[in-house]
């Protein structure tokens, strides 16, 4: 073979290898289905192989022409808007019509070439403070672009000795997974770093003597400011000085073997139309004990935005706003009952009280449950929409077993106890009345031998109260009541044991505590049994100061709540969830 032929063949082969791979499928024909418009959804390329394509020809004879190689878009997101199927040789393949978030490039891509999820996209940064040190090797990056496409610049290695101040946080998605990035500064170094590369900086001890129970701010993240106390916040006492006031044993109610339902709940399939009652069984002979309960509102059960039906079936505590316009009810996920208390999930529903009462008239008291049920099933009426406008459902968060939601009328702040039993370190959290999620969290320890109680209430002066039921002690009778009084807030937590309690608790299961601002009494709630005492006489009570009321039935008494501007009290109970008004006789 002559050298000219050799060169010619070599050039021909070389030209063949230079034909772009994007045209590889140009001659293959397919049958094309109709395009279907679908909800927008983000995707990312599985690997560097594969392309996007344009379609040409008729539905019966469609050809593909590759227009974008996926290897050039590995750090971007594609957004799907349409789907279709191409069939060849009896085999159908699904294709997505996608648009690239970075360049705007479009085309059809095999569904098997992409995975669902965002890739190199982010969220808008939020303010968040804190001090951090390096936990593992990593880099601080300058990030450019926007939320649709983020680009990492040259990184600077984290220092092993520096302290980094965080001012913002944002989420960045990579291959479908969400990662928290913190914006930090240290000297001339500034930029974004993966949160898992950091750890909280050691808090430097100060020599300044703080007030007993004073808190220190330790961090701020995702809208929550975190505080902690140092040392015990329970004043020292001598247990030998503790005394009790007698309460007759016949007023102590045992826990029902099984909690009962409202009498009309099952027969009505939960859509109860008329008010139920819980009748008086026995009482002490005084002016404060003669009352029963009658339904004011049957609370909703179904709700569309939660994963399963009947998610509103486990309310734990409630409180009114200072002006009595809103009722806040704190719920638990029933399936979380076996988890550690601090890990249990909850949420708050804010009810416009006057609004829902308009649709809770006797004879048509099923309106509220039907409205949320219709919303769940997607067939709402105009009345349903009006009712739902009076109900605001907050987001889920780690709430603990929330038997303690209470308003401090002095500060107009909502507080609850998140953790109290898992360890001697307790956590109280402040709830935002607008976002319905915590915005402050305080860790504290009463003492190394005393757990925080599960209940909470405040009087008009801002004093905080809770009570406990004695399990076993050498200086207090078993099942006796201990009262604790003090302060609870983001700046200070301090409690004292009142050195006089009650010989017996109202029942075997401690449920809640509440304060009636109109008569100045504290109410201790157990199932089917409620005791009350004047708050102003704690420490010097006589037997005649103790009012006791027992009730018929087997309902679970979750919470007792009083309005702030009228002498109206309400019982929150379960199976099904309802608010029952205290009816004085």
TrEMBL record:
The keyword Signal appears for this protein: yes
Report the leader peptide range: 1-26
Q: Which UniProt keywords apply?
A: Signal
Supply the name of the protein. Answer: Extracellular protein
- Which species does the entry assign this protein to? Lactiplantibacillus fabifermentans T30PCM01
């Amino acid at each position: 073979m002559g050298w000219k032929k050799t060169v010619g063949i070599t050039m021909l082969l070389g030209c063949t290898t230079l034909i772009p791979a994007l045209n590889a499928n140009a001659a293959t024909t397919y049958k094309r289905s109709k395009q279907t418009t679908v909800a927008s959804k983000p995707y990312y390329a599985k690997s560097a192989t594969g392309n996007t394509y344009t379609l040409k020809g008729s539905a019966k004879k469609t050809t593909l022409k590759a227009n974008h190689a996926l290897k050039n878009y590995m750090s971007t997101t594609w957004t799907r808007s349409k789907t279709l199927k191409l069939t060849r040789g009896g085999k159908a393949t699904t294709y997505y019509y996608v648009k690239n978030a970075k360049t705007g490039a479009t085309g059809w891509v095999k569904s098997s070439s992409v995975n669902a999820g965002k890739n190199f996209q982010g969220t808008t940064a939020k303010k968040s403070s804190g001090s951090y040190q390096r936990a593992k090797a990593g880099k601080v990056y300058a990030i450019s672009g926007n939320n649709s496409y983020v680009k990492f610049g040259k990184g600077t290695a984290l220092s092993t000795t520096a302290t980094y101040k965080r001012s913002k946080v944002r989420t960045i998605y990579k291959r479908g997974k969400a990662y928290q990035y913190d914006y930090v500064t240290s000297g001339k170094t500034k930029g974004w770093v993966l949160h898992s590369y950091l750890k909280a900086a050691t808090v430097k001890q100060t020599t300044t003597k703080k007030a007993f129970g004073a808190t220190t701010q330790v961090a701020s993240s995702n809208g929550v400011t975190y505080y902690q106390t140092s040392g015990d916040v329970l004043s020292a006492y001598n247990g030998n000085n503790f005394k009790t006031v007698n309460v007759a044993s016949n007023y102590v109610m045992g826990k029902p073997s099984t909690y009962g339902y409202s009498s009309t709940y099952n027969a009505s399939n939960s859509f109860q139309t008329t008010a139920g009652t819980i009748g008086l069984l026995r009482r002490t002979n005084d002016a404060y004990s003669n009352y029963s309960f009658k339904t004011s509102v049957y609370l909703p059960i179904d709700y569309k935005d939660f994963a399963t039906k009947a998610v509103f079936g486990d309310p734990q505590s409630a409180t009114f706003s200072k002006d009595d316009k809103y009722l806040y009810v704190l719920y638990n996920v029933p399936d979380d009952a076996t988890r550690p208390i601090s890990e249990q999930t909850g949420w708050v529903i804010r009810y416009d009280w006057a609004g829902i009462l308009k649709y809770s008239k006797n004879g048509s008291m099923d309106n509220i449950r039907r409205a949320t049920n219709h919303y769940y099933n997607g067939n709402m009426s105009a009345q349903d929409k009006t009712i739902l406008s009076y109900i605001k459902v907050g987001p889920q968060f780690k709430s603990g077993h929330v038997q303690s939601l209470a308003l401090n009328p002095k500060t107009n702040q909502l507080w609850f106890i998140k953790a109290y039993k898992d360890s001697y370190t307790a956590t109280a959290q402040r709830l935002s009345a607008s976002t319905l999620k915590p915005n402050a969290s305080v860790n504290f320890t009463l003492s190394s031998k005393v757990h925080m109680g599960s209940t909470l209430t405040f009087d008009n002066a801002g004093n905080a109260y809770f009570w406990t039921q004695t399990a076993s002690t050498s200086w207090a009778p078993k099942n006796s009541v201990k009262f604790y009084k003090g302060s609870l807030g983001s700046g200070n937590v301090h409690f004292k044991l009142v050195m006089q309690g009650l010989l017996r608790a109202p029942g075997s299961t401690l449920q809640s505590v509440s304060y009636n601002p109109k008569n100045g009494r504290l109410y201790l709630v157990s199932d089917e049994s409620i005791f009350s005492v004047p708050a102003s006489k704690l420490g010097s009570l006589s037997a005649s100061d103790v009012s006791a009321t027992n009730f018929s039935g087997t309902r679970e008494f979750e919470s007792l709540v009083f309005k702030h501007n009228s002498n109206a009290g309400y019982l929150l109970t379960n199976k099904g969830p309802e608010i029952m008004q205290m009816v004085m006789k």
